[in-house]
Queue: 3 jobs
Job 1
Amino acid sequence: MIRFVARAVTDVRAIWHDMPNTDEPRVYFANHASHGDIVLIWATLPKRVREAARPVAGSDYWSLSPLRRFLGQHVFDVLSIDRAAAWIATGPLKLMAEALDRGESLVLFPEGTRNTGEAALLPFKCGLFYLAQSRPHIQLVPVWIDNAGRAMPKGRWFPVPILCTVSYGEALRVEVGEDKNAFMHRASAAVQALRPRHRAAP
Amino acid sequence: MNDADLLQTKQLLLAGTLTVLIVASLAGALLKLRFARGRTHTVIDNLNSRIKAWWVMVLLLSVALLSGPAITVVLFAFVSFVALREYTTLCATRPGDHAVLAAMFYGVLPIQYGLVWGGWNGLFMVFIPVGAFLLLPILACASADRTRFLERIATAQWGLMVCVFCVSHLPALLTLDIAGFEGRNVLLIAWLVMVVQGSDVLQYIWGKLLGRHKVAPELSPSKTLEGLLGGVASATLLGAALYWITPFTPGQSALMALVVCTLGYCGGLVMSAIKRDRGVKDWGSVIEGHGGMLDRLDSMIFAGPIFFYLVRHWWAS
């Protein structure tokens, strides 16, 4: 139902640079500008892949009110993590790694929050790196979601009609011996590279 | 003229259009086989995509032609929605525009078509130019975002004028009372669409066959003088030849066709200038790979309202 509305309003289209042809769990990491982001990802992923894909989100936000708890648990099925916890610690990293081991895919927004500024992308948090390091076989798919923040900006609860696209790039992995900064830089560049060239200035 | 005659006229029009389309599709397929089998060929592939887009357009218009006014109005409301969405996507909106955009899509657009459907002619002509014109900036103040305020509000108003107000003049033709032409108003829409779209097609063909001199290389590199003259002249003849479905005499019909084709041509030029400024070639991709709704609609947008007011002034009572 939500996907249907998203399609009708944004006419979302997927651009695949690398078709998902396996049932292996994957980590999709995307830019984040709107609550609509995850809906657009679901609307563009093939059914089989979609059903196994869960968004990772901050528990501080999604447990704030009963409505958010309900949406988070039953509608978006978020894997909620404590954004304040230390990454190396057992908490968030362990939860995500366990989900991958169970065969679930994860949707990560490494910017850590919705981007409302002028910059295309906020600096990535390093959870992605530690997750990739702890499960080196997992494919990390960069994703650029275009225009979701314009269709449904932060603080609004319904979308306006603006055409959106979701671009899926070629999967990355952590190279042997690659250090954190180099990997984070590469991951961030992979997402930015998917951004369409012709865009209206904000 | 009675209902049976009307139905016969519609069937004749559809049969004629379908014949042209089938011939065009066959020609396109033959060209592809003969010159570019299994390869990409910019001109031939572009021609074939255009033919596909015309199929979709003709099918939609046949629905309008054969069904009642309600379906026609809903169809054009949908066209407006898609066009306005393409327009908005290319504009530089800010988060503070959310309320204005919501009002445009979910308020102004349905109300405008509601007025058309209800036949409130006086209201439908002032609702957007006066009502929305004053309401939107007031609403925009609520967001307290003053960055580029005038530019944003002007852009929003222009989008409503072009994508909703102008387009709604086509179904509004149904509401005119023309003596001796009762119940046949939908044929005016058919005539206008056939002549203006025919002019686009004929300009394209003349331009591809004889085009040498570019008219406006900075705005629309594909428009040539030969295409313009040949296209408008042959579409004027087409308009005259179709006089029997309108309340016009052959001479009036030719003159009308000349006016709407010239306007349609200018419309294409204006919309193209906006696209180039935004750095894109097409408005969208509604029909997979064949450009957006606005790419096919640009000429109708400029021809529609003027045609409506000319008919209203001289023929309607």
Job 2
Amino acid sequence: MNPIFNQGTSPAQRLTLVLACSIALIFFDHKMASFETARGYLQSLVSPLQYMANAPQQMMTWASENLVTRQQLMKENTSFRENELFFHEQSMQLSIIRQENERLRSLLSSPVRGENKKMFAEILSVDSDPYSHQVVINRGANDGVYEGQPVLDEKGIVGQILHVGVSSSRVILISDISHAIPVRIQRNGLRLIASGSGQIDRLIHNFVAHSADVKKGDLLVTSGLGGKYPEGYPVSRITSVRTDESREFATILSQPEAQINRLRYVLLLSKEKAFNPALLNKTKSKKGVKL
Amino acid sequence: MFSNNGFVISLTLLIALMASITPMPLNVDAFRPDWVLIVLVYWCLALPNKVNVITAWVMGFILDVLLGSVLGVHACAMALSIYIVVVNFQKIRNFSVWQQALIIGVLSAQYHLIVFWLQRFLSDAVFLSNYLYPVITSIVLWPWVFLLLRRVRRHFHIK
């Protein structure tokens, strides 16, 4: 039965209640960051929705992957085979160089860089919210994902893990307005900070002196400072350098190397070292000598 | 609320939530209409005793979690927009569908501006005109959603 006269609380009362709730939530979430653990649970709660929302797209990709001609497959196969040969040759070279590098580093008594453990993940959904650049991936706490874990694609750094759910987690992209990453120029080792601009194809470098040696086309790689991102992965390429002497600092912009707007698969790097028997033997023998 | 009627309403809201997070190509994504807002406005006009400001706030909160924004931002904007509908539902009901569509445009613009103001207050966001593109698509979408949901409501005898 529909009551003719409004009973109970009026809309205005409800609105005040709800607005008070929102202000409290915004304050506690943004200023105090007291919802970090609750966010994890909420993320796991809504992850079925995200999997469901992703289903149509997955069906489309499944269909397009299954409906290819034999000729196309054969063509792809030959190109993969060529690539494999090429990469194999490179990896042979690389393993020799790595061993040499490790030996040299141990001679210099600097810590040997082991290989990081890696994990493969698929993008579940991309946010439609223009104010935050985030994506959701299909790995969570069950797979050993942790907060702050670096994420990259085949071209370069994509971002880092923001919230971890049980079976999915959220990645903040380097182009997000609240994100910044320490980098250095590969050519001359000059250190910069790449801050997100809120636009997907642009990073901003603040506080760079006019005299700094920065050129258009320079590749920026992670510097490893700050301890979040491992050293030496490509981040972005300088697109414009403007030195307007009336301003205090140069205006420098760069474009991310990773294809942030067409991500599908990403790689998570973890702090744990992958098991490396050669390295283990070496450290053991070293200990033996010392004893 | 837990009867058949409530179930259908929540189902439409759930579909709207899913439509607002499905992955899309980047240049289409800017034009994504405010599905949740439109569906909420319809139910508010049709059944103001069932769907109210609190429902809107809850949906906004879920949207916050799904979009990863600061909790409470979308919830606040959604509640304020729906409040206007709830207070004026008897007037808006009597308008023609195209006039209603214009009101949806105003509501959608207000929703996006509130979200922008809060984001600006929290994180120095810069205003880009494409933040208001969803207003256009929402206006175009309203008559179709209205007709569809009216059919749903009559088919399931939701009162």
Job 3
Amino acid sequence: MNNDDTLSFDLKGIQECQQNRYPQLFVDSIVDVIPGVSARGFKNFTYNEWFFPSHFADDPNVPGHIQIECLVQTFIMTFLCMDLYRGMKTNFVSINNAYFKRKIIPGERLEIRATLDSFKRGIAKGSAESFVGEEIACSADFLITLPDVLENFKPKKK
Amino acid sequence: MTNEEKYNKAFIESFGIEKDKLNGLKYQDVISWDSIGHMQLMTVLEDEFGVELDIDDITDFSSYEEGKNILRKYDVNLNV
């Protein structure tokens, strides 16, 4: 807990909250977390990332699906930071309004700003956008489930 | 709009189905009434009727008809 009641997480703390691991963990640090409301994340890209040699050999840049992972892995910290949900697995339900505005290349740092609009019965709805410096890189809206929570609310019989 | 019309609208809009499919409709009879669709329906009904459903009622809500019985417990009269 920071002095202003927001939370921050280093790589160890992030991995205590979510189950993404190398080579699928795409956020390095999380700051300014207001549980149940919002979070801000950072991802530093270097040429050592496993995907740069193949995407593309003559023009290395971050693939779109990895940009989406950067957004959503910051987004899920808005609720996985809470004790009740810490460490749970998450699933995608939908990704809407995904826009890619800027190529991200080795050496650049992505800042992700995520907002949780609603969280009820294991279903989280919200959005995230990312920036390189002041330039917007990508954005998307998400519907995410916590299957272990959702399971408790499914009809018992057909 | 009557309460029954609001109830029907919640199903029609949550699951993208026609009104003539409602009678006898059960959980998982249509692809859109899956676990995610169920939570969406519960949220729409709670917002529409100003109630907060208990977890036991959410898990017992397994059909169009059963849902009417459950809402009556919350003083939602579907005949008006």
